[in-house]
Structure formats: C-alpha cells, structure tokens
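[INFO] parsing input record for PIG-L family deacetylase
[DEBUG] input buffer:
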Amino acid sequence: MKLFLSPHFDDAAYSCGGTIYTLNKGDQSVRVVTVMAGELPDPLPHTPIVEDLHQRWQAGYDPIVTRKREDEAAMRALGGVSFRYLPIGDCVYRTDNGVALYPTEESLWDNVHPHDPAVARLAETPLYALTQTTDLLGMEIYAPMGVGAHVDHLIVRQWAYRLADANPQAKLYFYADYPYIRDSAAIDKALVHHRQLVPELFSFSESAMNAKIAAMRCYRSQVSTFWPDEEAIDADARSTFTYEGQFAERYWHYIPV
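[DEBUG] output buffer:
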C-alpha cells in the first residue's frame, strides 16, 4: 500500500496529486489519510484566525462538511482513490482547557504548542489503524516535509517518523509541501529538521498533471488563499511541478541508519 498522510484536506492532492493519480492508475493500492479532519467543535473558538478563515473560505455554516465534499470530489478526480479521515480537529479549532492554542495567523507557524492534544493522540495511533493490514510488504508512507512550518504539517511529520521507526519494513518518503515550496529558502529551512534523506523525483504524464489540476480545482474554498482566481491554478501548478523539462513531484526518502 502507498499511504499518503495529508495534514489537511487539500495537502496530498496539492503536493502529490500527480504521483497519486499515476500510482492508482497503475493498479497500486493507494490511500490518502487526512489527519486533521475532525468535526467543527461546539462551542467554536472565537478567535481572529477562525473568523478570518471562515470569512475567506465562504464555506457555509459548517466548513468541515463543505471541505469534505471538496475532498471527495478531488479523490474522484485522481481516479477514485481510497481515503479516510481521522477525528482530529484543525489546529485553529484545538483548545486546552477551553483556551484556543492557535488563535492568530502568526501562531500557526514554526512552534507546536506544548499542550497540543493532537501530538499525544497521534502518538497512540498505530499504522494498522490507517491500513487495517499487518502485511507491510511494499508499504510506503508519504508525509509532509514541513516546508513552510505550519504546525499541523510539523505534527504529522514527526508522527511519520514515529510510524516508520515502529514499522521498519515500511519505507518513508517526505513530500514537498505545496504551495510553500514556491520559496526555495523554506525548503532549505525544512531540511535542517530531517535526517538521512535521499532526494528523488517522481515524474508523471500530461494526463496525470491534468488530473492533479482538476483535483486542485475541487478545493474551491481554498482558492482565495493561494491564487488570485481559479484560472491561475493551472499555470502555477505546471510551473511549480516542472523539473528538468518534465512534470514531477519532489520527495525525500528516509534511510534509517
């Protein structure tokens, strides 16, 4: 199985869509697990970041329901990929004793809160809970590199190391978090926090790029955050994911000593 760990609903499609489509089309067993996919909390934290995001997304009364629908459409665009959601809330909704852990835009980056419950919950979540199999032959785990240093990406990155260390038969790859990879300095900064990595490129076809772009377009609530309009997605994706004259996505293979 090829297991893609996506911190949020869009991350796997944005960063690995060409790879996912190609593997799935080649009759590989592919699954996308969205980690921070928990339901909207009640009560909702009344913070500047929640207010800003809900206004920006324009995703209705319950944005999580809308975002799941977007994600389901994206998985269909990538060839009907298997997917599942973990019941951990997005960082903007997580609290400790009723106090929001990440109340502002600035708090979303670089530093995971020491009382963040997501860290402990993932530490208690084994690989079997994601795959429902003990057969690790050919198992590959794909996780965010942490480019951009969003706290949810950092948490999933560390969990991926834990999964790999507990399951040495499985191979671990880190993917380049899009759109943060537009900044090459952010990639260098993320690499500092890793060990024993070998860079690789996964090249794919025009049809795979078209499927990736179609999947990216499904996340309509996210367009205003990253692009001036939906039409800009195509050119940006083609430019960002062209390496050495071919469409490709970047990975780093973890080789434990």
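[INFO] Strands lie at 2-6, 30-34, 82-85, 95-96, 99-100, 140-144, 171-175, 197-203, 242-243, 246-254.
[INFO] shutting down worker
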